[in-house]
Amino acid sequence: MLGAGERTSAAQGAGKEKQSQSDDYAKRRKLYEQISLRTGLEWPYIAAIDQYERTLSQAHPKTRPLRKSAVTGVYIAESAWVGELNPSPEDTNPVSIRFFHGIGQDGSGDRRADRDKDEDLLYSVTAQALKKGSALDDFGIGLWEYYHNTRAVQRVLQFAKLYKHYNRLDLSSHAFPLPLGSNYSFRSTWGYSRGWGGKRIHEGTDIFARHGVPVRSTCYGIIEIKGWNVYGGWRIGIRDLNNLYHYYAHLSGFDKQLKTGDIVRPGQTLGWVGSSGYGRPGTQGKFPPHLHYGIYRDRGLVEWAFDPYPLLRRWEREEYQAHKAKARGSASR
């Protein structure tokens, strides 16, 4: 167990980290509002472009390096910024960059298109997205023409929907997928072989619990899929702001009010633990009741599963700590 001094030090460290994150969100919000004033595009859409760019940079850190002090997550290759035939790779003149068909623009008003400046980077990508207009359909076309990827269009619009609904950037909190007061058990089952449906591996973590225990959203996100899958039975898939796809399978049923495209929050009930799957719609009982929980990262053109077990342990621990802190606060009043 931690001593009093260690607990105080840990609390101070967590406090500093939270303050740093809060400062980062404030800087980003200010940048989005500045770009919004220059382009006329609402800040949630600008934030969504930036967040999608950030997820790509996080997924490809070697090919999309960002400055340590960068506020934006936007990365634009040097050749795309100045133009492929531009003889000056460090060109910052908007006129000559435009002549060589580069996309770099002046977003700060200093008459320079500086690839190392947050305002110029984000303004330049936003301008590309607005080439066809600011109406939602036109904006979507502009996004597609820039990214040449329908998934990119979907992600930006999903992110914008979340930012617009909550009117804030800090949507990073999580919850454990089952109520902490329920009786459940789980361990790392990543990579285990599967016994039904051909040769394949287990891409997730199984959380065993009684039939009917509530299954909760682990994140803020958008429901992408809801319905039957021959392997997962009654399942639901949610996309979060980190471009992670959260997959909940083998449910006994869903919250009937939920539908595809709905926004969900951490801890919100999605359905209930069951044993559905491994057959045609309605198949039940081929295995003990449990929740199969998986996470997939969108890398731009493909999605890859990764082991969710460490995150589940982390979210379980953080939720326990939050409950204890709340109980201590109530007891001291």
Question: What can you tell me about this protein's structure?
Answer:
With 333 residues, the chain is an alpha+beta fold. The chain has two domains: 21-166, no CATH class; 184-332, Glucose Permease (Domain IIA) (Distorted Sandwich), CATH 2.70.70. The protein is built from eight helices and ten strands. It has helices at 4-39, 43-59, 78-82, 94-99, 118-129, 136-147, 150-166, 309-332; strands at residues 184-186, 205-209, 214-216, 221-229, 233-240, 244-254, 263-264, 269-273, 290-298, 303-306. Helix 1 (4-39) packs across helix 2, helix 1 crosses helix 5 (118-129) and helix 6 crosses helix 7. The chain is elongated. The model has no long low-confidence stretch (mean pLDDT 91).
Write the CATH fold name of the largest domain: Glucose Permease (Domain IIA)
Oligomer: single chain
Class by helix and strand content? alpha+beta
Radius of gyration: 23 Å
Shape: elongated
| Overall number of structural domains | 2
CATH class of the largest domain: Mainly Beta
Mean pLDDT: 91
Distance between the termini: 26 Å
For the sheet with most strands, the description reads: 10 strands, antiparallel
Which CATH architecture of the largest domain?
Answer: Distorted Sandwich
